[in-house]
Write a structure and sequence with these properties.
Number of strands of chain A: 0
Strand content of chain B: 15-25%
Oligomer: heterodimer
Order of helices and strands of chain B: EEEHEEHEHHHEHEHEH
Shape of chain A: globular
Helix content of chain A: over 70%
Distance between the termini of chain A: 55 Å
CATH architecture of chain B: 3-Layer(aba) Sandwich
Structural class of chain B: alpha/beta
Number of domains of chain A: 2
Radius of gyration of chain B: 17 Å
Radius of gyration of chain A: 21 Å
Number of helices of chain B: 8
Number of strands of chain B: 9
Distance between the termini of chain B: 21 Å
Helix content of chain B: 25-40%
Strand order of the largest sheet of chain B: 6-7-8-3-9
CATH topology of chain B: Rossmann fold
Structural class of chain A: mainly alpha
Amino acid sequence: MDIIQLSWFQLAIGFIILIIPAAIFWWYKTGLNRQMVIATIRMTLQLLFVGYYLEYLFEYDNAWLNTAWIMIMVVVADFATIDRSDLKSKWSLILPIFFATFLGIILINLFFLELVIQLPKFLEAQYAIPITGMVLGNCLRSNVIGINDFYYNLKNNKERYQFYLASGATRAEALYPFFQSALKKSANPTLASMATIGLVSLPGMMTGQILSGASPMTAIQYQIMIMLAIFSGTILSVFLAIKFCNRTVFFENDMLDQSIFKD
Amino acid sequence: MILQAKNIHFSYPGEPIFKGFNFNLKEGEKVVVKGESGSGKSTLFRLIMGFELPDRGELLYKGEPLTGSALRHFRTKSAWLPQDLNIGEGTVMEVVQYPFQFKQSGNSMPDSEKIKEIFSDLGLEPETLQKTFSDLSTGQRQRVGLALCILLKKPVMLLDEPTSALDEASKQKAANHLLSDPKRTILSTSHDPWWVERCDRIIDLDYHT
């Protein structure tokens, strides 16, 4: 069973449905209509751009080119992480988060693409790019939650951290409870979605595969795999992001550089 | 000298605290730091602990400047009781036991009987151990902090108002635990004449700064 091809006209009809949220927003004077229009235009243009780019990427399907694209995705995610967090855009955060996310993504990709799926071609674009995109999107969300919680918790409870240091803790030992809290907070959304998946929501990847004609069981196998990739990828990237940032945002006396905070 | 401050200058933005402050502390001395509010008593402790850095001058522990690895070594030999203690969300037992897990501090975990004994000496019920630390009153938190300092048995202690939350009977027991070791060096702040009387000498910051 092949997927029904959508014409541009059919897709344009799809936009008509926005009248409903627009009317609700207008009625309740939310002021969100302008934001909705901008977001819709951005979403459409970004996806069209990616669509054209992916066609090119799939045609050449070169491991180096795919890695370069993954790096670009990570760079964009890196800046978006800092932008959405309450921390300042400083190189002492941007660089460690980039390396942490890139390392996390590469490890997860190598494990799932090469060891589990065993792609015939190294980092084949058809698999590597969409899977990276899904893991990365979730890493971004978890990194924002994780680094925000870690550094603001540390800022708000600095007496606790300092008390531990003063009692002979190493920096890592004194930071341990803050790590615990950040990991719990960043893991919760993914754990919650894993607990309800299939019952409450049918995830996008699975829906896409079923729409393109894959059997539901194959789609489910891929979905289970992607959930494992997302969960392990997000935890790994939060862990590495905080570990790497901690090498650049502390002074020699173990005090946190307060200039990383926006407020 | 176990602790020395040499020509310390320190200011918060727009607020000078120390302008060439000096002191010497011999091993085993029990010293009280006195001064008006804002004279820098707590800041002095924070400087010694390395939480603030002096603008000029240096602090020394056994002749070594308190920076880098010497600072970390000093912290394994010290205990610090701040005035408002906020050290965690777990139970009091968890909060008390946590510092004993630090590898370099060289402390062995006290058994629960020992913890209860010190708690009782400071007027804390044994049931306090099962309560959530953040639910305790300021005075109770201060007493838990003092109990922790006693249990840690460090050779250097920086104590901010150690007797402020204690009644007369508990004060005597706390003093027995803290002051009886002739090798232990204690730098404290206190408005309590009872405690001041039991210390060897006073450093007056209003006079020094």
